[in-house]
């Protein structure tokens, strides 16, 4: 896969990192580095989460009860903290997805006013 130049990468909107982390963990437990890699890979490298943003987000989500963590051994045979989504995290992900859909719809109406149908 070709790397995306830095000038093509997108800035995350405030609040979207939590949703992306929860979405990534929907498929099972993962360590922090793996979460960042999954977000980059699934966005074709348009989104790159810096460690200075990722780890505070993981700690914040854990403090809110949306994630649980435990130490394990990574694929590279290194000690790593693995995060998994809790039931409260799954409920939060659904709320975030609903809010995201509303935001995308609202921005779409502004960016494409001709497509907006008046009823």
Folded structure, characterized:
It is a single chain. The chain has 119 residues and is of the alpha+beta class. The protein has one domain: Arc Repressor Mutant, subunit A (Orthogonal Bundle), CATH 1.10.10.10. It is 50% helix and 13% strand. A hairpin with a 5-residue loop joins β2 and β3. The radius of gyration is 17 Å and the shape is globular. It has a 3-stranded antiparallel sheet.
Essential attributes:
single chain, 119 residues, alpha+beta, Arc Repressor Mutant, subunit A, three-stranded antiparallel β-sheet, 4 helices
Cα-to-Cα separation, first versus last residue: 45 Å
What low-confidence regions span 5 or more consecutive residues with pLDDT below 50?
A: none
Fraction in beta strands: 5-15%
**What percent of residues adopt helix (DSSP H or I)?**
40-55%
Summarize the biggest pleated sheet: 3 strands, antiparallel
**Number of individual domains:** 1
Q: What is the C-level CATH assignment?
A: Mainly Alpha
How would you sum up this structure in a few lines?
The protein has helices at about 15-25, 30-40, 50-65, 85-110, and strands spanning about 30, 65-75, 80-85.
Topology (elements, then pairings):
Elements: H1 16-25, E1 30-31, H2 32-42, H3 51-63, E2 67-73, E3 79-85, H4 87-111
Antiparallel strand pairs: 1-3, 2-3
Helix pairs in contact: 1-2, 1-4
